[in-house]
Amino acid sequence: MTNPSMRLERDGALARIIFTQADRGNPIDGEFCSAFGDIADDISEDRSVRAVLITAEGKNFSFGGDVRKFQAAKEDLPKLIKEWTRDLHVGIARLQRMDAPIVAAIQGICTGGMTGTIAGSDIVLVEPSTKFVAAYAGIGYSNDASSSVMFARRMGIARAKRFLIMNEILDADAAVAAGLADEIAPADSLIARAEEIAKRLAQGPTRAFGEIRRLLNSVGDQPLETQLELEAQALARIARTADAQEGLTAFVEKRKPQFRGE
């Protein structure tokens, strides 16, 4: 699947989402939001996808929302925002409910809504010159693209609030320290390192990954007793899978398990 904003590539069990408008700074606009939603529909319905890798072409990952289009919309901007977020937000939610874990590799500047979108990845890699820019308050706006949820999950509510309200810029070291990123890789090996992690995950127990992702997504809004029951039910479902049986057998036989995502 290809369009001006991004393309989807498949490499066996790995799905790559690549943002392709480097000349414009990979902005979030109507075309981007529509394409993101379409790709999320495709891969969330494809059970052969066992990991997702998100990358972007160009010097900078993304400058976030297309401010020039916001300004040009004038009094139609509120409706435009609802149209764009309809597609983008549904796409984000679909990816979050997948079994397949998400890896993202971020170079250069990553701003505003794209930072929120990427924060939903399970593993975020950056290179030494990466900078995450809050951006919203700097132009007098509140946040979107799941940033209220994903920043809070990654950094904690207090740190996320400070990042947004103070309109902070976090460099690579600060992003890792805050929990917004997970690992710093050299610029010339960033994509290779992200590929290594994504391919490793693509060979893992995919259904177990999915249950883990969903359990951690629900932990903030469920009472203890409910969350414990969700854990028990998820574990029971996983016990029925071929990968769970393979994991036990491999452990007893003292060999590396060969998971098939089933």
Question: Residue ranges: pLDDT <50 for 5 or more in a row?
Answer: none
- Characterize the largest beta sheet: strand count, sense, and whether it forms a barrel: 6 strands, mixed
Tell me the strand percentage band. 5-15%
Q: How many strands? A: 9
Which structural category do the helix and sheet elements fall into?
A: alpha/beta
- Total of DSSP H or I helical runs spanning 4+ residues: 11
Q: Any idea how many domains?
A: 2
- Determine and state the CATH class of the largest domain: Alpha Beta
Distance between the termini: 26 Å
Helix-strand sequence: EEHEHHEEHEEHHEHEHHHH
Spatial order of the strands forming the largest sheet? 1-2-3-4-6-9
CATH homologous superfamily identity of the largest domain: 2-enoyl-CoA Hydratase, Chain A, domain 1
The CATH topology of the largest domain comes to: 2-enoyl-CoA Hydratase, Chain A, domain 1
Mean pLDDT: 96
From the spread of the alpha carbons, the general shape counts as globular
Q: Give the CATH architecture of the largest domain.
A: Alpha-Beta Complex
- Rg (CA only): 19 Å
